[in-house]
Amino acid sequence: MMKSQITNAISDFFFEYETPRQVLVRDRRVGVACRLIQLGVLGYIIGWVFIYENGYQSTDTAISSVYTKMKGVGYTKINGTESVWDVSDYVFPPQLILFQGQMTGVCVNKTKTCEVVTWCPVEDDSSIPYPPLLMSAENYTLFIKNSVTFPLFGVKRSNLVEGIDTGYISKCIYHPENDPLCPIFKLGDIVKFSGFNFETIAKLGGAIGIVVDWTCNLDLDKKYCKPEYTFHGLYGNADETDVTRTSVGYNFRYAKYYMEGKVQKRTLFKVFGIRIDIIVQSLARKFDIIPTLTAIGSGVGIFGVATVVCDLVLLHLLPKKEFYKNMKFKCTDSHIQVSSTLCINS
């Protein structure tokens, strides 16, 4: 008996096919609701998933490197002393100082001072030159050379794209409309595009971010993969009114050492400068069959929402809900002789 039941179950599993029963319901309200839901799902799949989100493409971010070069010459005259400033004088990494010197532990209560081991005389930064000494820096130029590699797609690009040759670089200056691909930027323009005032930032210092954006559709020829530059003031705006107003600008100190007789001396400079951070962001897309099939499959699954909603309306909200239940579900007596019945969803 048990062997026969197992054999029949195996036979039914391999040699029988079940198909759902379809019921055609002629009801305008339900029909319109179903089509509207299906149109909404179709619009979501085509408009959002495929067009806006590019669901048919795979994505990759770039490995990037940046090289910069600043050019310009400035002139100052302080207390009758003339000086010429070139890139060797005004381009350098910051060396911050947090205190005047090493404490010896000897203090004088009367003057409320403590002895330190340091260079003499100690720094006095209470007087800041105005107008700023190097206002001519507004005409300095910054050259940015950037290369990116999208390893997933094997694509390499440089911001020296097609048409950016030596002759073009020798005469171009970046402009967002006239020369958006020129890699040479005037310092005054960088400050202006970031929303700062050059005279203010030259006096107190500040930081500016230059974003090089590589957003590329590699389904097109790679020559259309070009950078876009945007400029953002990071900190140093003298017009800020929030808590950051207590620490306006950007400055650091550096020293030049020399020997006078047998005594080592130094000239200490407190520099109010412009810090430029170059930020590269990237996103490349290209057609891929796997995300395409995934997007289509998820979209087809969402189409089932229309059926679920319409079934809820048919079976629970319409006046003829009992009639529709009898049409949708076929109830037969169970093979086992019990008083209950088995409902089969068909």
TrEMBL record:
Q: One matching Pfam family, short form?
A: P2X_receptor
Please report the record's description of how this protein sits within the membrane: Multi-pass membrane protein
Instruction: Name the source's superkingdom.
Output: Eukaryota
Q: Where in the cell is it found?
A: Cell membrane
Q: Which GO terms describe its molecular function?
A: ATP binding; extracellularly ATP-gated monoatomic cation channel activity; purinergic nucleotide receptor activity
What are the protein's UniProt keywords? ATP-binding, Cell membrane, Disulfide bond, Glycoprotein, Ion channel, Ion transport, Ligand-gated ion channel, Membrane, Nucleotide-binding, Transmembrane, Transmembrane helix, Transport
Q: What are the BP-aspect GO terms?
A: calcium ion transmembrane transport; response to ATP
Gene3D superfamilies for this protein: atp-gated p2x4 ion channel (1.10.287.940), atp-gated p2x4 ion channel domain (2.60.490.10)
Instruction: Identify the glycosylated residues.
Output: 139
Annotated membrane-spanning segments are 30-51, 295-318
Q: Does the keyword Transferase apply?
A: no
Instruction: Return the GO cellular component terms, semicolon-separated.
Output: plasma membrane; postsynapse
Cysteine disulfide links: 172-182, 216-225
Q: Describe the reaction catalysed, as an equation.
A: Ca(2+)(in) = Ca(2+)(out)
- Sites binding ATP sit at 69-71, 141, 251-253, 270
Q: Does the keyword Transport apply?
A: yes
**Family, per the entry?**
Belongs to the P2X receptor family.
Write the protein's name: Purinergic receptor P2X, ligand-gated ion channel, 1
